[in-house]
Structures are given as C-alpha cells and as structure tokens.
Amino acid sequence: MSKYIRAKITENTPVNKDHNLLVLSPGNIQQHPLPGQFYMIGTDFSYDPLLKRPFSIFREASSAEGGELQFLYRIKGKGTERMKEMKKGDTVNLLGPLGNGYPMHGRNLTPVLVAGGIGIASLFPLAEKLSGNVHLFYGARTKNELLMPNELKGLLKKELIISTDDGSEGTKGTVIDALNIFLTSKSQFSTSNFLLYACGPSPMLEAVSKFAAEKEIKGYISMEENMACGVGACLGCTVKTKKGYKRVCKEGPVFSAEEIVW
Ligand SMILES: Cc1cc2nc3c(=O)[nH]c(=O)nc-3n(C[C@H](O)[C@H](O)[C@H](O)COP(=O)(O)OP(=O)(O)OC[C@H]3O[C@@H](n4cnc5c(N)ncnc54)[C@H](O)[C@@H]3O)c2cc1C
Ligand code: FES
Questions:
Q1: How far is the CA of 73 from the centre of ligand 1 (A)?
Q2: Are residues 232 and 186 in the same domain?
Q3: Whose CA is nearest to atom 20 of ligand 1?
Q4: Domain interval for residue 169
Q5: Domain contains 165
Q6: Is residue 103 part of a domain?
Q7: Across the beta sheet with 194-199, what order do the strands follow?
Q8: pLDDT digit of tens for each residue in the chain (262 aa)?
Q9: Ligand 2 pocket member 51 (CB < 6 A)
Q10: Residues in contact with 247: Cβ distance below 8 Å, sequence separation at least 6, in sequence order
Q11: In this structure, are 45 and 163 located in the same domain?
Q12: Which residue is closest in CA terms to ligand 1's atom 23?
C-alpha cells in the first residue's frame, strides 16, 4: 500500500548540468518499491508549485538506521527548479510507491532494455533486479547527457550499447537505429527470444512500440505522462489504449507495448 511520508533530504547533488541525484531518508521503508514504480514528490516550503511531481524510484536501500530512496531527476520547469534549490536537511512530502512496475518473465526470454534520456532512472533498478543480465540500449542527445555511465558499466553483465544524436559517444543516431543493428546481428536467434522494456520520451516509446510490433517482439513501455493527483482520482493522466482509456498513474505507468493507441 502506498502512503504519505515526510522525508529528509540527505543529498541533492548535480550529476551534470541539467540533472540531480536526490537522496531521501524516509525512516523505515515499510514497502519496498518495485522497479518501474514511482513516487509523487512535493517540495515543502510553499504551495507553489501546488502539485507534486512524479519520479521513478532509481535506487532503494535499507539498513538498521532506516531506509534510503534515491531519485534521478532532470531540471525541467517550476517543480524541478524548486527541487534543485533544496538542501541537505530540508524535508519533502512523498506519496508512494505508486503504479504497477515492470512485469517479470521467465529465464527463457532475454531482457533488452531501451532507455532514452532520463528514462534510465526507471530502467536502472530493473537492470539491478535482473542482476545485470540484460542488454541495455541507452540513448541521449549528447555524451554530456549520459547519466551514471560508470555505474551502468559496473552493473551490466551483457552489452551496454550507447547511442547519441550527435555521435559524441557510441553510435550516431537513435536507440532504435542501434536496436535494429543489434537484432540484425543476432538474426540466428528468433526475435521471440527477446523481451523489450522501454522508458523515455513519448516519441521514442512510440517508435519502440512500432518497432516491436514490426519485429514481433513482446515488450513493455513505461509512460511519462503529466500527472496531477497520482492516485487515479483526477483522470489527468489518461492515455488511449486498445481497451479504452487508462490512467497512467493507476493502471500504468507500465503498459504492454502493443496496448497503446498512438
Ligand atoms: C511515472 C513517471 C515517472 C517519472 N520519472 C521521472 C524521473 O525519474 N526523473 C525525471 O527527471 N522525470 C521523471 N518523470 C517526469 C517528471 O515528472 C517531470 O519532468 C516533472 O513533472 C517536471 O516538473 P516541472 O515542474 O519541473 O516541469 P513543468 O513542465 O513546469 O511541469 C510539469 C507538468 O506538470 C503540470 N503542471 C505544472 N503546473 C501545473 C498546474 N499548476 N496545474 C496543473 N498542472 C500543472 C503540467 O502539465 C506540466 O507540463 C516521470 C514522470 C512520470 C509520469
Ligand atoms: S494523475 Fe490523477 S488520475 Fe492519474
């Protein structure tokens, strides 16, 4: 069950120009978040911005002294600008864990993770849970925007395939281009051996879903829709699916790749 928590900031440090790592100490964590689940985070100083913002759990640790929740966030607008200003010792309001998280499958399928930009925050704990036995495709606009490259290299037991739009690191082009090259090189395997998990900007998720349909690969995508309540009450996050409209915060954020109507 999700719950409201007041949590102290133990770290809020820049990872690069536009991204921070936020580490929170919420005391004893009663329920451990699953990879792909998220928390609504509200800054504590004022009612501006009024609405909490959704952030994927990046890492969770528990110890005798209590738990620690980590979030990677991109500084984008009003809410995250305010988050950036917060210091060690300040408190934030948390609601979570929320949403469904990534479904797990048997060992006979090889997980292929596809992250675009800050989508890595959601897929990193999945790679951890799968003990690094995943192929990870990670795309960013430029080398400087790649997050946690050393942690990823240390974690993964299979390939880390980086692509950047400007070619400053890895292959030049999109993650879909890189994925296509990879699958072509593995043509001795049936595509039905792979299972895709993707998180990133909406155009990337649309491209991944269409690619998966074309290659007949099963997969899941985590949607990053704007949210207001985060608990299924306001219908502000609905997306059109083949089975009618669904709420990203409640029925998602992870959906089957063939389910969304683009
Ligand atoms: C499930 C999920 C997980 C996510 N995980 C991450 C993550 O791990 N890291 C990360 O960096 N980002 C993540 N995001 C995206 C993140 O939530 C947004 O980048 C963040 O909300 C931006 O907030 P902002 O205030 O800085 O930007 P803004 O662009 O100012 O606001 C974001 C949106 O909130 C809405 N909003 C703002 N003010 C109001 C208002 N007054 N009334 C109504 N609506 C308003 C608007 O729709 C606006 O587009 C995730 C999103 C989802 C849905
Ligand atoms: S954000 Fe209110 S229903 Fe999803």
A1: 10
A2: yes
A3: 53
A4: 110-256
A5: yes
A6: no
A7: 171-172, 160-164, 135-140, 110-116, 194-199, 218-222, 254-256
A8: 668 888 999 999 999 999 999 999 987 766 789 999 999 999 865 566 678 999 999 999 876 666 899 999 999 999 999 999 999 999 999 999 999 999 998 778 899 999 999 999 999 999 999 999 999 999 999 999 999 999 999 999 988 999 999 999 999 999 999 998 888 877 666 777 899 999 999 999 999 999 999 999 999 999 988 899 999 999 999 999 999 999 999 999 999 999 999 9
A9: no
A10: 232, 235, 237, 238
A11: no
A12: 79
